[in-house]
Design goal:
By secondary structure, the chain is an alpha+beta fold. It folds into 2 domains: 108 residues, Roll (PH-domain like), CATH 2.30.29; 53 residues. It is built from 4 helices and 7 strands, in the order E-H-H-E-E-E-E-H-E-E-H. The strands form 2 sheets. Strands 1-2-3-4 form a 4-stranded antiparallel β-sheet. A 3-stranded antiparallel β-sheet has the order 5-6-7. A hairpin with a 5-residue loop joins strand 6 and strand 7. It starts with 24 loop residues before the first strand and ends with a helix.
Length: 184
């Protein structure tokens, strides 16, 4: 079957009250896990530094308190350092439905943006060397409207996502054309 005539296979997920009646969730993505590499690397360095300090602190009456303080500071620092990036990663969601591209982010306050597929003019991607090795990339979506171009970074499986989005845009345009022809 030619690529232009294939239809997307929709993923049936739990019902989402924010979707319209004939809308189905096709793809849900979080940013690529590589966004957590820097915070995790710093966490490893903090643990290594804390272990070195634990070994260097001399034995004596105040040593136990000193070691405890180092351990508490390291644990609290790691919790604070890792909590924000992990929550940001977990609360950032890119969703493709058969009618729109939805973007949601925010830890305490939420932000959302929806782009109807009918308004999308072009979808492209780019991948740097690290992106190619890790399987992620940058997705560029151009749409009609005041915002014009949207760049989504650190998208996992960016080529497949771009292909799915392009196919959904084509299907939505065909559906709208059919609906327009069928109107009296």
């Amino acid at each position: 079957m030619p690529a232009a005539r294939r239809t997307c296979q929709y993923l049936r997920m739990t019902s989402d009250p924010s979707l319209t009646e004939e809308e189905h969730l096709v793809l849900r993505l979080h940013p690529h896990w590589k966004t957590l590499i820097k915070p995790l690397s710093v966490a490893v360095l903090v643990v290594a530094a804390a272990l070195v300090v634990e070994v260097v602190v001399p034995w004596g009456s105040a040593a136990a308190i000193g070691r405890l303080v180092v351990a508490v500071v390291a644990i609290l620092g790691l919790m604070l350092w890792l909590m924000v990036p992990v929550l940001r990663w977990r609360t950032t969601v890119f969703e493709l439905t058969n009618r729109r591209l939805r973007m949601r982010d925010g830890i305490i306050t939420r932000h959302g943006r929806d782009i109807p597929l009918a308004r999308i003019n072009d979808v492209s991607f780019s991948k740097g060397l690290l992106d190619r090795l890790l399987g992620s990339g940058r997705l560029v979506v151009e749409s009609a409207g005041e915002h014009g171009q949207i760049v989504l970074t650190d998208i996992p499986r960016v080529e497949a996502t771009q292909g799915t989005l392009y196919q959904l845009v084509e299907e939505e345009q065909n559906r709208l054309d059919r609906d327009q022809r069928n109107q009296p």
